[in-house]
Amino acid sequence: PLGIIKHKPIIHTILKDSPAERAGLKAGHEIIKVNNTALNGDAKLLLNMIAAHPEKPILLSIITSKKSDADYALGDVLLTPGSREIIENGETKKIGIWGVQLEIDEMPTY
Predict the structure, then answer these.
(1) Which of 2, 20, 51, 103 stands 20 to 30 A from 11 (CA)?
(2) How far apart are CA 46 and CA 37, in angstroms?
(3) Closest CA to 46 of 9, 86, 93
(4) Which tens digits make up the pLDDT trace of 59-89?
């Protein structure tokens, strides 16, 4: 049987002038907690938590550099996601956006 595949939330690209850039996030940072909730390598949980907090500050705990599983640097970043209106089930609502492409997202090939 197949298990649930989780992808580590590691930042690949940050959009210029985005909430993530203003918060100081960088490519290569791995996000391990949101508001002190451990992600356990679950990128989907991270994206859901950001979407649930439009225009509200959230605390991200990140690995800023990693030489090995035992040798890494940690940091905390306060991120205030932007917002975008969407229509869901006929209702308009705001979701949080942050201007990041994670390493797991599909990349265009040329």
Answers:
(1) 2
(2) 10
(3) 9
(4) 999 998 877 777 778 899 999 999 999 999 9
| CB neighbour class for 86 (10 Å; exposed up to 12, middle 13-18, buried from 19) | exposed
- Do 99 and 82 contact (CB within 8 A), yes or no? yes
Cα separation, 60 vs 79, in Å, equals 7
How far apart are the C-alpha atoms of 61 and 46, rounded to whole Å?
A: 11
Measured in whole angstroms, the distance separating CA 31 from the mean position of its chain's CA atoms is: 7
Q: Is the pTM of this model over 0.85?
A: no
| CA distances in angstroms from 40 to 16, 18, 21, 56, 92, listed in the order given | 28, 25, 24, 23, 32
Dihedral sign of CA atoms 30, 14, 80, 50 in order: negative
DSSP annotation of 21: H
Residue 100's nearest CA partner among 3, 36, 25 is: 25
Residue 90 has pLDDT above 90, yes or no: yes
